[in-house]
Please model this.
Amino acid sequence: MAAPLSRRTLLLATAIAAGTPAVSYAAGGRPGAAPQAPAALAGPAAPAAWSVRPFGLEDVTLGPGVFADKRRLMLDHARGYDVNRLLQVFRANAGLSTLGAVAPGGWEGLDGEANGNLRGHYTGHFLTVLSQAYRSTGERVFAERIDTMVGALTEVREALRHDPAVLSTRGRFGTAAENVRGSHQYVDLPAGVLGDTPAITLAAWVKPTHDGAWARVLDFGDDTNRYLYLAARNADGVPRFAITGSGAAGEQGLDGTAALPLDEWSHLAVTLADGTGTLYVDGVAVARNTAMTVTPAVLGPLAHHWLGRSHYPADPVFAGAFEEFNIWSRALSAAEIGALRDSRAAGTPAGRGDLASYAFDERDGGSFADASGRGLTATLRRTWGGPSHPGFLAAYPETQFIRLESMTGSDYTEVWAPYYTAHKILKGLLDAHLATGDDRALDLASGLCDWMYARLSALPAATLQRMWGIFSSGEFGGIVEAICDLHAVTGEADHLALARLFDLDRLIDACAADTDVLDGLHANQHIPIFTGLVRLYDETGEERYLTAAKNFWGMVVPHRMYAIGGTSTGEFWKARDVIAGTVGATTAETCCAYNLLKLSRTLFFHDQDPAYMDYYERALYNQVLGSKQDKPDAEKPLVTYFVGLTPGHVRDYTPKQGTTCCEGTGMESATKYQDSVYFAAADGSALYVNLYSRSTLTWAERGVTVTQTTDYPEEQGSTLTIGGADASFALRLRVPSWATAGFRVTVNGRAVPGTPAPGSYFTVSRTWHRGDTVRIRVPFRLRVEKALDDPSLQALFYGPVNLVGRDPSTDLLECGLYRDAGLSGDLLPTLTPVSGKPLHYTLDGTEWAPFAEGTEDPAHAWFRRAEPRVVLGGTDSGVANPAKDDGTTLLDEIWAAAPFRGKGALLAHVRSTVDAWVGAGLLGTDDGERVVRTARRASYAD
Model:
């Protein structure tokens, strides 16, 4: 038995067998310590259930080629993007300084889709990207960025554990109190602050930083029935004061005439006495109402006296800063109000407010002193109170998690997949710990799971089942997988128990019974569930988890799979085997391909079915590579969300509003291209070569290196050179399912006997020595793949490469391919190579190029097969190509028998096929003879 693989297993340590004790952590994990080099870290072994294990990213070095080129673009983005922008939403939620950073926007901003209810997820993705980049390259810049982010998140969690503290900033006259947008903080004044005064003046210096309507400067009231408020902006964007004892319909108000400028100090004041109210902005009266009969005395005692918070829950919390807030029990004169514009109240004729006076000049703590003489100390609070557990960490309040527990239907404007976001944060933290040895990251990850367990374990089973079955709001991504990975590190029983709390029994049971229930389900909500189930099988040994995952994979591949390896239409699945009927502009969500790749490799660890790696090659070499645009960008990762498969579709590499789920997984994909090139048997007896990609493997446990030299897929094969110590093991080379033109292997120039079968692994067992060379030849053929529900809708492949037509037409291209087909059945002779552009061809004036190229050319991934006449060897017989009821044509049947040993074999098959069609009444006798004569006259490529 070889020593267990190092921590460079899945996720660097995707887990150990159930019951394995916790490991000790690297000294480099101490706060402030230098990060450990990736190869220096030790970690838990792979699960005992795995018969095959992966290598770590640091064990496989990418050589020059398409993967390295695409990765370089993403590494440059990861090096340069300001991580403080990602941390902004976390710091804001904790009431900390955001250091002037601007949130990325899109899904990571409060103004993004669904009010930014998914914010925080992208930060988790980025931590994973940095971790993968550090493991792959060893560049210290990535470790330093991880250290910055982990340190900031540690500060965020610590701040959330305590009552909010004042964030001081420069004010109009001195120090002011800042309320960062997204902090959900407000100032709570004591009861009785207004007394029963019939006249009043309210005055405040404010510096709004956001233009959200209805954010309150102040709101004193009981509910949405009795209140008075001063809003920085109403629906028209101007200040408004209102008072009512009968709700919004009974408001008596004052509206300003112009919007308050953002990021500048403005003075607001309201006087109310003798039925007249006046609103002042910067000392100037801008509104007067002489019919204001409601006063604080009329309202009577009120329950709440808030600065920055509204009694209407949908209204935003005031974002900006306060400096000096005063309340007087009389209406100040216009002159007194004007004087307040130039100095603090204490230095004006009005003096400090006699009911309340707050300078907001505190620099720490969570309270504000009252200088009125009444001792009405105000307190800084969160609208949501605070976390229910010290492990809570998020970029928004815990309220999304709380609301989910009572939801019966989806509404992502209220609750958008909070456990999905928790998964991204958890995975990013765990990856950071495993990449650098930072124990703070592990503590954050463990605390996050402790909080989730405390929250979810208290809920009835029926509630959990309802939650996880809700579209979007109940989505939890790959959280089960990540929790199992954490359990592998900590050994905490509660963590494993937490993973099982996410079981969606009706889905698991249906798939375990091989009952296809996928029609109508959201694809990416469910794919990662099954990778988690495989990991739960690893930890628990419960067979239904693994069985469900295997059956599920078979329901998607090929039954809901597009030729490029993607799945889903408009993010959802349709009926089984409906492909042509789902093609649209919003097909193949990129996250789905990412998660299907992860599921495929995880299943392969248990069952070395070559179909898993055939799929892996298909999706990786086509959709995943093609999802990354081939150009640099400092601001955006340039990754697709959907890959539209409609004719002439142009890929969108800056989807939606930005910072989407697919951009997150797209960044991850581009920094781990090498993760499945090689696997090792668990006992060290075999090395699997799954993908042909220029790379170097360091198999430390066997003291062996394997250098793969190839330009695949431009080159039809690869060369492996063994280095290091002598070692005996089986070299298992994947024979792609499409490799019907042969698969030849030589070792040191001598052919290896055997008959490699497409869709298998070809094994070469021997004692390997330094300098041994293995040469693999995999001849490509041009072939088509037909849509399951419409055989005339086809995709073009050359070996593993999906070729797409580059044409602006929005109608399906019609193509014929048989006219110059060779005796081998290869359709390539029908195409013309483009000089100087490998894997580029032309057909009837249209250029065909690899899908993997990340361009903005209008593309046709599907075409309509059209073979109107029988053309053989470039010779047109003049006979219409007849078809059977199922769409199969005469030419289809002729070429289905390829390859042919020679022209004679082809002619014999043409003769027998024609006779059969004539006998069935599908082809006339004369036309049949013309076809045979044409076949005899024609010349054919091999």
Remarks:
- Residues 1-32 have pLDDT under 50 and may be disordered.
- The chain has 21 helices and 39 strands.
